[in-house]
């Protein structure tokens, strides 16, 4: 009986590790913004010079925000430009926009912004529509948050200016919020060396990963992980399996400080198992996870201690 229980505990431990990363996903119940451009709109995509100018404007917007330069942000707008916040408030004219951004920057000291441009369209000769995400990060240990945006540009005197910007869709967890997870990670766990490698799927909106576990004195066990957005609920789900037969799936939810993974699956012996994983960012290249509420069959197991993984290689995100 002792030998059997030890084997089951080892499999629960490995199940925890697989489950911790079978879901690198996210959680609120709204789907991410999709590019709804029609073929006709795509055909009017503008020339490379115009697209480069819009991209340069997007980068300049983020740089000005991160420098706390509200005046430069306002100068990117047309004289009577409009800026609408996620809460619905709208500011009109450069003076009002400058004041609004100055207050926002002051209230969010230490926040860094990334602009992720998803699409640029040119419905008319001097009109451009830019869509994407604004990703915000506070401090080296914080988890990124994002909002969607739409920006309308007009050409005035040969220069592209922001005529109207709208930020929306706050409080939605997105795959882009997990791009800090991309790369190779490793740790020396009590049960042996564990390695993960996460990349973006080049053919679909997903994060894919490979998993290697080498228990002390035993053969290496490999696994795969796939993280996607559930089109029905908008929540991020994932599934993972090991070549020994174990399988798990999970849903991720972010509470602002941790990713919380609700995991269910089966061990290699066919026993049903569930647990909750708490994943935190300890540093730009370090994460910790802890398994709690662990159950296998009718047996309940104690919470694990936090396990720290270090990044050994980074992967370029969608920026």
Describe this structure in words.
The structure is a single chain. The protein has 319 residues and is of the alpha+beta class. The chain has two domains: 9-29 and 176-314, Lipocalin (Beta Barrel); 39-171, Roll (Nuclear Transport Factor 2, Chain: A), CATH 3.10.450. Helix content is 21%, strand content 47%. The protein has five helices and 17 strands. The strands form two sheets. The chain has a ten-stranded antiparallel barrel with strand order 7-8-9-10-11-12-13-14-15-17. It has a six-stranded mixed β-sheet with strand order 2-1-6-5-4-3. It is elongated. Mean pLDDT is 84; it is low at 1-43.
Spans of 5+ residues with little confidence (pLDDT < 50)? 1-43
The beta-strand count equals 17
Major sheet details: 10 strands, antiparallel, barrel
CATH domain class name of the largest domain? Mainly Beta
The span between the termini is: 54 Å
Q: Which strand-content bin applies to the residues? A: over 45%
Task: Name a few traits of the molecule.
319 residues; alpha+beta; Lipocalin; Nuclear Transport Factor 2, Chain: A; 2 domains; ten-stranded antiparallel barrel; six-stranded mixed β-sheet; 5 helices; disordered N terminus
Give the topology, please.
Layout: H1 2-22, H2 39-43, H3 48-67, H4 70-75, E1 77-84, E2 90-92, H5 94-107, E3 111-124, E4 127-138, E5 145-156, E6 159-168, E7 183-189, E8 192-200, E9 206-215, E10 221-229, E11 236-242, E12 247-254, E13 259-266, E14 272-283, E15 286-296, E16 299-301, E17 307-314
Parallel strand pairs: 1-6
Antiparallel strand pairs: 1-2, 3-4, 4-5, 5-6, 7-8, 7-17, 8-9, 9-10, 10-11, 11-12, 12-13, 13-14, 14-15, 15-16, 15-17
């Amino acid at each position: 009986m002792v030998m059997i229980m030890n084997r089951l505990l080892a499999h629960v431990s490995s199940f925890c590790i697989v489950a911790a990363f079978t879901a690198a996903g996210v959680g609120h119940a709204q789907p991410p913004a999709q590019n709804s451009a029609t073929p006709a709109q795509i055909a009017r995509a503008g020339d490379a010079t115009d697209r480069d100018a819009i991209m340069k404007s997007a980068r300049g917007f983020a740089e000005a925000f991160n420098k706390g330069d509200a005046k430069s942000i306002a100068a990117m707008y047309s004289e009577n430009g409009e800026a609408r916040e996620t809460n619905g408030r709208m500011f009109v004219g450069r003076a009002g926009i400058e004041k609004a951004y100055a207050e926002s920057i002051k209230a969010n000291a230490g926040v860094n912004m990334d602009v992720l441009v998803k699409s640029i369209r040119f419905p008319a000769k001097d009109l451009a529509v830019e869509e994407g995400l604004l990703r915000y990060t506070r401090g080296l240990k914080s988890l990124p948050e994002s909002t969607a945006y739409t920006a309308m540009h007009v050409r005035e005197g040969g220069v592209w200016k922001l005529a109207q910007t709208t930020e929306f869709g706050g409080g939605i967890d997105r795959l882009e919020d997990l791009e800090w997870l991309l790369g190779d990670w490793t740790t020396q766990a009590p049960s042996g060396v564990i390695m993960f490698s996460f990349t973006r799927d080049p053919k679909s909106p997903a994060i894919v990963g490979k998993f290697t576990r080498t228990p002390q004195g035993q053969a290496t066990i490999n696994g795969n992980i796939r993280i996607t957005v559930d089109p029905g609920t908008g929540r991020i789900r994932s599934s993972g399996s090991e070549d020994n037969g174990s399988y798990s799936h999970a849903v991720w939810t972010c509470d602002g400080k941790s990713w919380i993974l609700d995991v269910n699956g089966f061990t290699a012996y066919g026993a049903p198992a569930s647990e909750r994983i708490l994943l935190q960012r300890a540093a730009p290249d370090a994460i910790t996870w802890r398994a709690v509420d662990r159950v296998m069959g009718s047996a309940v197991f104690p919470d694990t201690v936090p396990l720290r993984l270090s990044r050994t290689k980074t992967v370029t995100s969608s920026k």
